[in-house]
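The freezer alarm interrupted the setup, so I double-checked each line after restarting. Inputs confirmed:
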Amino acid sequence: MGVSNVKQWSRIVKEALDRAFFTAKFLCLLHVSNTYLCTVALAHGPSMLPTLNLSGDLILADRLSVRFGKVGPGDIVLVRSPQNPRKIITKRVVGMGGDRVTFSVDPKDSRRCETVVVPEGHVWIAGDNIYASTDSRNFGAVPYGLLQGKVFWRVCLFHLLISFHNTFFYRLLHFILLWGYIKWNIIFDCLENFRIEKDNILNHMPRK
Amino acid sequence: MKCRRFGGKGEEDMGALSKLSQWRTLAREAAERTAILAKFLCILHVTNTYICTPTLVYGPSMLPTFNLTGDVLLVENLTVRMGKVRPGDVVLVRSPENPRKTVSKRILGMEGDRVTFMIDPKNSNRCQSVVIPKGHVWIQGDNIYASHDSRNFGPVPYGLIQGKVFFRVWPLNGFGSLRQ
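Predicted 3D structure, all chains:
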């Protein structure tokens, strides 16, 4: 009786360890693809109106373009703010290193313009809504190394859900993540069963 | 080893089928090896991000702390991400002039500090004082005669800091953690 208990426990512990390893591998893969391939961001604020919403837009940004230097004027990029390193802002690239950029200093009060040459290794970023945007007109050209990703896709589905309560959106996101995790576990079980059956068949073959 | 299950079909079909199964075994083995390699690279990436990563630094700008010909150092970036970098730490910084280059320098001042530095130590004794703006740091090489740093390109944004150096692995006579 004691022996069968120990056997059961060891089986349960082994299964728990297998699941834990599988989860760890999945999270590693997610982390790697988030760092090197594509990342998700929630952009909110008035500085990119009318392109992006005031209350929030779920956008996808790819990291490969920034790594290989394929960012150019007109691209919307995610930038780590030079004034607050914990904040990531969404702006449009207006000029690259070496370009001459003309901008209106204070569009609400006057029509005065200034021209600036962007230094090498820097980019000039500006929000689409020049009346409500802190960008390179305030803190100057930002070094290229602060760029985090180039935005290429807006997920429109969540626009409808965000206009409801904010916590509903987060609950939905958690539900989707949990569903994805459970589905992967089921697939993992199927693969395990397939492998066990295949081993059984291969073990039985020489007898025939 | 002849398989008797397909009795009566002849040897040409057997040749084609066995070649197909050979290809399938090869493909499966290649997929398994690639999966193992991918898992290893993922774990390496996670270790580099959350624990530490080794780097090779060379150049004259951090003499006598680091050698001219090259030192292998261990760099961690948890301290950077938590914002606990302090003046006196040696850090790896992505150069603001060339985004593909990563340089190693020492932090002399954080945001709000007033930094006094010699503009051109080889020619004159003239000093200048600067207040570091918000969100920026002042980096300087230990060898002020041969270092291209914040005295040339100004304070750099904190977001450009890639990691903090905490241990030296090579050369072996300098093995150990770095002290100021």
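Quick read of the result. The first strand of chain A starts at residue 38 and ends at 43.
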